[in-house]
UniProtKB/TrEMBL annotation:
Protein species of origin: Cellulophaga lytica (strain ATCC 23178 / DSM 7489 / JCM 8516 / NBRC 14961 / NCIMB 1423 / VKM B-1433 / Cy l20)
Upper taxonomic lineage: Bacteria, Pseudomonadati, Bacteroidota, Flavobacteriia, Flavobacteriales
Domain HTH araC/xylS-type: 187-285
PROSITE patterns, sorted: HTH_ARAC_FAMILY_1, HTH_ARAC_FAMILY_2
Keyword Transcription regulation attributed: yes
Gene3D superfamilies: Homeodomain-like
Gene Ontology terms for molecular function: DNA-binding transcription factor activity; sequence-specific DNA binding
Keyword annotations of the record: DNA-binding, Transcription, Transcription regulation
Record-linked Pfam families: AraC_binding, HTH_18
The protein's name in its UniProt record: Transcriptional regulator, AraC family
């Protein structure tokens, strides 16, 4: 396990300080990189991983890669922000260990690390806060290339700060002693599922992406994640639907379509099976909380 953790690679994309108002309002954001925030003034909201996080001063926040999220600022807030790529051996993601918090009270050194990262990486700020302007391959490659402008000292210190900051969100120090690296390409399958929940996804399709037989893929998925692939996909569809019901005014038909259900009737039955509530009652209860 130590060898795997030693292979963790964190690649800085952006860092800066932003003063943001009501235009900081973005839906359906799914990025291949991690975001991290330190809030200094005001408040905002981020919806992700089936929860709502109120961004407030004195806390740091983590939004993992390939996570559906919605960002809302109803008035004004100021933040230090960082975005970076993360990867460990053979394409595995550290987030698959599922031992992360997404909101952590900042300690006395947290603000220093955010400020220091900005100082080390001058002119690495995002020019436009709308993810559509920078969440694309050509722009991300340009961000990555900017790391070549760092001196050896700056690069090593940058890596150290990123490692320290991400470690603050790890709540369980006991990681698996062994990980079967032959299963690592399943990590790419999880990313594919999360990005394509609006589409029909078959087990045959996923198995083909791994160059496995359907039967072997299903057994390997169950062995690795403790859940059958079909159930995993269905669970992720319902989780996404809950977030859409909570954060948008989309009709039930629109929500069903966005999470890959062909019709509202099937969507409602599946939703109730997972949550014991209909989509309409779930939305009504949440609005009235």
């Amino acid at each position: 396990m130590i060898e795997i953790l030693q292979s963790l690679r964190l690649t800085l994309l952006n860092t800066g300080y932003a003063k943001l108002g009501t235009s900081w309002n973005f839906d359906n954001v799914i990025s291949p990189f991690t975001r991290m925030y330190y809030i200094t003034k005001g408040t905002a909201k981020v919806y992700h991983n089936d929860g709502v996080y109120i961004l407030k001063p004195g806390y740091i926040y983590l939004i993992p890669s390939y996570t559906y999220a919605r960002y809302i600022c109803e008035d004004y807030h100021e933040q230090y922000y960082i975005s970076f790529l993360e990867e460990i051996n053979n394409g595995l993601s550290i987030y698959n260990f599922k031992n992360f918090e997404y909101e952590v009270k900042a300690d006395e050194k947290s603000l220093y690390y955010f400020k220091r990262l900005v100082d080390l990486n001058a002119n690495r700020e995002i020019k436009n806060s709308d993810p559509k302007t920078y969440d694309n391959r050509p722009t991300l490659l340009d961000f990555i290339k900017q790391n070549e402008n760092l001196t050896t000292k700056e690069f090593i210190e940058t890596q150290g700060i990123l490692n320290i900051l991400i470690s603050k969100f790890i709540t369980n120090n006991k990681l698996p002693k062994e990980i079967n690296l032959t299963n690592s390409n399943l990590n790419q399958i999880l990313n594919y599922i999360n990005k394509n929940l609006h589409l029909p996804i078959t087990i045959d399709e996923l198995a083909n992406k791994c160059h496995y037989s359907t039967d072997y893929f299903s057994k390997l998925f169950l062995q690795t994640y403790g859940i059958r692939p079909n159930k995993y996909i269905q669970t992720k569809r319902i989780e996404r639907a809950q977030l859409l019901l909570l954060t948008t005014n989309d009709s039930l038909e629109e929500v069903a379509q966005k999470v890959g259900f062909e019709n509202v009737s099937y969507f409602s039955r599946s939703f109730k099976k997972h949550t014991e509530k209909t989509p309409a009652s779930f939305r009504k209860e949440q609005v009235n909380i």
